[in-house]
Structure formats: C-alpha cells, structure tokens
Write the structure tokens for this entry.
Amino acid sequence: MSGRGAIRVGVAAAIAAALAGCNTVQSMLAPAGEQADRIEWVWRVMLWVCVPIYVLVLVALALSLRRGGRADRAEDPGDRQRDERAIGRGLVGWTALIALLLTGLVGASFVADRDLNRAASAPLKIKVTARQWWWSVQYLDDDPSKLTTTANELHLPLGRDARIELASNDVIHSLWIPALSGKLDLIPGRTNVLVLTPTQAGRFRGQCAEFCGLQHAHMALDVVVEDEASFAAWRAHQLEPAKAPDSDETRAGQAVFLGAACATCHSIAGTTAAARNGPDLTHVASRASIGAGVLPSGRDALARWIEDPQRHKPGVNMPAVPLDARERDQLAAYLAELR
C-alpha cells in the first residue's frame, strides 16, 4: 500500500472511530430522551453556524496575508483609497452578520432552555442523593409502604416524565446522563429538580460531573429505560423483602452479615439490618455493578470487595471487615443471592 493510501485508510479509520464514539451509552450526540434531543439540536445549530464563520475567518486571514505580501510594492493612491473603503464596508457588514448570528444563537438557546425547564406532567417522583462516592436512589410515593430505595441504579419507564429531586449529603456533586439530559448540580442544603423523559429503551450511563474527591471518576450511575410493564414489575419486586437464605452456606452468610460490622452501615429488608450509612443491599445482586461501577456484579467480585474495598476504591468510606476466608465466602454467597 502506498503512503497516501495508508494515510487515507488511517483517516477513514479515525473518522469511523469518532463516529462510533458518538453513538454510545454516554454520548450527547446519541439522544435517547426529549431533553437530550433539545440539547443536541442546539449543538447542531451552533456547529452549522460556527463552522462557516471559522472558514470565513481563515479566508480573510489568507487574503490579508496575501495583501500584506504586496505592501512593499508601489500602489496607486486611488486604489489604496478604494481598498480602504471596501475594507470599511466589509467590517461593517461582518459586524452586522456576527450580531445577527449571535442573536439567533441566543434565541435557539432560550427556546431549548425553556423546553428543558418545563413542568413535568403527572411525573414519576424520584429522589437521588449523591454521596462520596455513590448514588442513593429513592422512588417516592404518597403511601410510605411503597417507598423504594436502591443504589447506583436508576430505572425509568419509557415515554413518561420523571421528576428527579437532587440532593447531596456531603460536597457538591453533579449528575450528568448525556443520552437523556444535561448536567445539574447536587448542592448540600438545596434541592434541585431535573426532568427526564426517555424516548428510547436501553441501558445508559450517568456520571458525577463535578470533582468531589478522590474517587470522583468512580461514581457511575446505571440508567435502565424499559417499557411501562417491565418498570412496574421491577418496582414491585423492589418492594419485596430480601430472599431468605435456603442453604447452609447462605444462612451462615446472613449470620455473618448481621453479626459483623456490615449491619451497622447497610440495610436489607426482611432482616434486622436497617442502617442508612451505606447502600441498601436488599437486591444488590440484581444490579449490574458494585462500588458505583468499580466491579461487575457477581459472587467473586463481592468477595474481592468485602476482602479489601480500599484496594478497588481507595478512600471509600467502607473499611475492610475483619473476616476469615470462610466467613468472607459465606457472606459473598449470601449477598450474591439477593436479587
């Protein structure tokens, strides 16, 4: 292959990779919600306005350099005056064009912002609380018995408004789910509201977008958008207590959990563990990951996390629980059954 052919292939591969990267679970250029669609529309408007302006600036720069290269040549005074008048008219026209385009961009931004801040219609109400470094997700209801709490995972019904109340218990965080909407800060002592209206089913990724400490980069939020029936079934299952252990190993694991320091931080519905310092573990095995995206869900990962959480997420508030290998495996077996 010739050098030019190799360059063309390389450029094509780079473009293909860039386009593929724009169509992922964490891309604002692949909108899967009404709010993200409005943001992407503004982005495209600004792109198609600014690219021609950029090209015109480069053309003007090239012409000025060319003209400057002829500056040492003799020039007729009449020609110089005509050039100066032309330049003056061009500057006036350029200023008017820029003012007009900026006004248009402001108008487009205003229209999109108004859509983003519209009131939700009969919304699903959810409270998301950011902590260092994980997400507490609570599904609100006027009936206290129907309150549902999970962690690091947000389930949403397709085509329905969700009113997300955002709060923080420690420092400033920022929730960003690019495929569904823009960023919004979570500020201690204040509640902000984010409205999400998913238009595509699938699994998407949210992330803390405000530096919040050592493990800021390891603070992911899995977002699952599903049809109304699937969402209703998931929420009904979340209201159920944890599965009772049905083997000697898992019964021993439950005893380890309730007898060790685990129960002082975590809660499991259906047991005496009711602490709120750490994530609710009632259905922990049904989640895609543990540690807010640090490890994939599964018995082996749970055992590794229990053995030394600081190894996988340095600075996390969970200490290493002093257990022997047998107790650790029993505890991991018990937690791996909580679906």
